[in-house]
Amino acid sequence: MGDTIDYRNIMVAVDNSDYSNHGIDVGIEIAKAFEGSLTGVHVYAAKLYDWRFRQMGDGLPERYRFASELERQREMHDSLVTKGLQIIADSYLDAADGRCKNAGIAMTRKSLAGKNYKVLVEDINNSQYDMVIIGAIGLGKENLLGSVCERVVRRVNGDILVIKNTLHRLKDGKIMVGVDGSPESYGALQIAISLSQKICAAVEVVSAYDPYFYCRAFSSIAKVLSEEEGKIFRFKQQEQTEEIIDEGLANIYRAHLEVSKSIAGEKGVKVNTILLRGKPNNAIWWHVHEEKPDLLILGRVGMHRDEGLNIGSNAENLLRLAPCHVILTSRRFVPQ
C-alpha cells in the first residue's frame, strides 16, 4: 500500500453491545470526514442452537423421545430459532441504520449466518473495505479482549480499528502513533497524518528503545561463567559497551522521530515527538496512561518481524492493555 488513506468504505461489526454501538458512532465520524459510508454486519449462529437442541434429546420427557416426534420438535425448533435470530439481527441493524440516517450517512446491511469470527473474517477478506471497526468485547464483559475480536484481528490484514471504551471520540481528539523505523510503523504514521487532517486531531509520535536488555543479558551470562571464561567477555569493559549501546540506540530512535516529523511537515501537519526508554510495550503503555490519547495507531509488526507473523508482541500487548481505541495496520511506507 502507498501513502494514500481513503476510508470511504467502512465496515462495522454490529452486535448491539456498548462497544459496538460506540463503534458505529466513531465510524460515522470517520465516514463523514472521508465522505464515505458504512456497512453494518451482524452474524448469528443458528446451527449452535440446533446442535444444543439435539444434545438435549436424551433428557426430554419420554413422550417426546419417539423418532417422528423428535424430528417434528427439531423442525419446529429450527424454524423458531432461525426466524427469531433473523428478527434480532434485523433489529440490531435497524438501530445501527437509524444512527447512520440521523447523521446523514448511508449504511449497507449484512445479516449473515454462521460461526461469528469465521463469517466476519470471510466477509472482510472477500470485501473491499477500507477500514474494519470492531468492539474489543461484545456482550460479555469479563475480558480485556474478547475471543471474536482477537480471532478476527489475527486473520485479517487490512486496517482494523478496535473500540476499547465508550467514551473516546476521534474528532478534535488526540492521536498517538508508535514508530520504530519499520515500514509498517511509517504506514501507521500515514494514517495518523491523514486522520489529523480530516478530523482536526493532534498527533504525538512516540518511539521506544530498550537499552536494559543488554545489561540483563550481560548480567545473566556473568552468573554462569567461570572466572576463566569470564575473562574472555571482559565484563569490566562491557560496562563501557553498555553506555555506547544505550546512546547508540537512543540516536537511532531519535532519528526515527526526526524522519516522522519531516514526513508530517511535508503534509502540513505539525506533530509532537517523544523518545521513551524501556521495553517498548511497557514504555508506551505507561505513556498512554499518562497522556490519555483517544487513539493509538500501530503497525501490526515491527522491525523484528519474521515471515508468517500475523501480529508482533508489542502490538499484541498494547492492543490488549491500552485503554484507548487502537488501529492496527499492515500498510507499509518507506521514507526516501
How would the global form be characterised?
globular
Q: Give the proportion of residues in helices.
A: 40-55%
Number of domains: 2
| Main beta-sheet strand count, sense and barrel state | 10 strands, mixed
At CATH level 3, the topology of the largest domain is Rossmann fold
CATH architecture of the largest domain: 3-Layer(aba) Sandwich
CATH class designation of the largest domain: Alpha Beta
In the sheet with the most strands, the strands line up as 3-2-1-4-5-10-9-6-7-8
Structure description:
Helix content is 52%, strand content 17%. By secondary structure, the chain is α/β, with parallel strands linked by helices. It folds into 2 domains: 8-163, 3-Layer(aba) Sandwich (Rossmann fold), CATH 3.40.50; 168-336, Rossmann fold (3-Layer(aba) Sandwich), CATH 3.40.50.620. Strands 3-2-1-4-5-10-9-6-7-8 form a 10-stranded mixed sheet, with helices on both faces. Strand 1, helix 1 (18-34) and strand 2 (37-44) form a beta-alpha-beta unit. Helix 2 runs antiparallel to helix 3, helix 4 (116-126) packs parallel to helix 5 and helix 10 packs parallel to helix 11 (313-321). The longest helix has 37 residues, at 67-103. The protein is globular and about 80 Å long. The mean pLDDT is 86.
Topology:
Layout lengths: L8 E5 L4 H17 L2 E8 L1 H10 L11 H37 L3 E7 L2 H11 L4 E5 L11 H9 L4 E4 L10 E5 L4 H17 L2 E8 L2 H13 L2 H7 L1 H32 L5 E6 L2 H12 L3 E5 L13 H9 L3 E5 L7
Helix pairs in contact: 1-3, 2-3, 4-5, 7-9, 10-11
